[in-house]
Design brief:
Layout (H helix, E strand, L loop, with lengths): L1 E4 L4 E7 L13 E7 L1 H11 L4 E7 L1 H13 L3 E6 L5 E7 L5 E4 L8 H14 L5 E5 L10 H11 L4 E4 L2 H8 L5 E2 L3 H8 L3 E3 H14 L4 E4 L5 E5 L2 E6 L11 H11 L4 H16 L18 E3 L7 E6 L3
Pfam families: PfkB (PF00294)
Keywords: ATP-binding, Kinase, Nucleotide-binding, Transferase
Enzyme class: transferase
């Protein structure tokens, strides 16, 4: 069972338009609303694969009630923590060439009591969990150290932690030695404070995160594939995609595939790549089912192309 923690969940509404024109009235060719938030998406992908998952998240207002209903309809056990503010609604506009424009709301501010209740709910539901995936940005009211507290509590209870966050929240949690962290290229560059221009740059940055406390680093390099850097060495993998429909939630689907395959080694990396590639071929933030996967297109190797230039280099911060 994979338990997910999403401190700042959302409802994600996606509109597909022929072209995005600033200042114009646009008519959508299609639209959909999905449960959103990085941990929520991990739970959705795990459930789509037919596996057990529990989503721990704050829920508020009519938006929170709709989010809970949508998750339960997808076979997800929901451990909702009531909060006074309304769950946020995010909007994405998708164009036929794969360009995606997103507007993410800030979300409600959590009180100290609500933040503590969220930690308590994780503890109450963590028994029997193979992994606890802590994902996404922290809402207003939660200090950057909140994830670190969660990692420490989970480890004390004997659970394994996957952490997908960035900035001060990631930095503060590294000292608690999360079992795996999952940055993308930009987040990896931000964490080490320098630009990343090649796959080799990304490998060195991942090794630095391991030196700061991460036991393993699963790094998403966008169109350039993924890296897994752990105690056994470095693996590099790719899964070509001919047409990108939407990349919303692709990284979350990738993490779900990694954890569902055990969360360790090249087989788990291959599963992560297959799930991420399948997600970008789907509309909105739809999560892939087993029938959407194309494992034959995945390649994983220890032969890392260190000099290969990244398609989207990341500036350091």
């Amino acid at each position: 069972m994979i338990l997910t923690v999403t401190p700042n969940p959302s409802l994600d509404r996606t509109y597909e338009v022929p072209a995005l024109r600033r200042g114009a009235v646009l008519r959508a060719a299609a639209d959909r609303v999905d449960p959103g938030g990085k941990g929520v998406n991990v739970s959705r992908a795990v459930a789509a694969a037919g596996r057990a998952t529990t989503a721990v998240l704050p829920l508020g207002g009519a938006e929170g009630a709709l989010l809970e209903r949508l998750l339960r309809e997808q076979g997800i056990d929901v451990a909702g923590v009531p909060v006074s503010g309304a769950t946020r609604v995010n909007v994405a506009v998708a164009e036929p060439d794969g360009t995606l424009t997103k507007v993410n709301a800030a979300g409600p501010a959590l009180t100290a009591a609500e933040a503590e209740a969220l930690l308590g709910s994780v503890g109450d539901r963590s028994a029997g969990a193979d992994w606890i995936a802590c994902c996404g940005s922290l809402p207003r009211g939660l200090a950057p150290e909140w994830y670190g507290r969660l990692v420490a509590r989970a480890h004390a209870a004997g659970a394994r932690i996957a952490l997908d966050t960035s900035g001060p929240s990631l930095t503060a949690a590294l000292r608690e030695r999360p079992d795996v962290v999952k940055p993308n290229t930009e987040e990896l560059a931000q964490a080490v404070g320098r630009p990343l221009a090649t796959v080799g740059d990304a490998v060195r940055a991942a090794e630095e995160l391991r030196g700061l406390g991460a036991r393993a680093v699963l790094a998403s390099l966008g169109a350039d594939g993924q890296l897994l850097v752990d105690g056994s060495g470095t693996y590099y993998g790719t899964a070509p995609v001919t047409r990108v429909r939407s990349n919303v939630g692709a990284g979350d689907a990738s993490l779900a595939g990694f954890l569902a395959a055990g969360g360790d080694g090249p087989d788990a990396l291959a599963s992560a790549l297959a799930h991420g590639a399948a997600a970008v071929r789907l509309p909105g933030s739809a999560m892939p089912a087993p029938g959407d996967l194309e494992p034959s297109t995945v390649t994983v190797t220890r032969d890392v192309p260190g000099d290969r230039a990244l398609t989207e280099p990341a500036p350091g911060v």
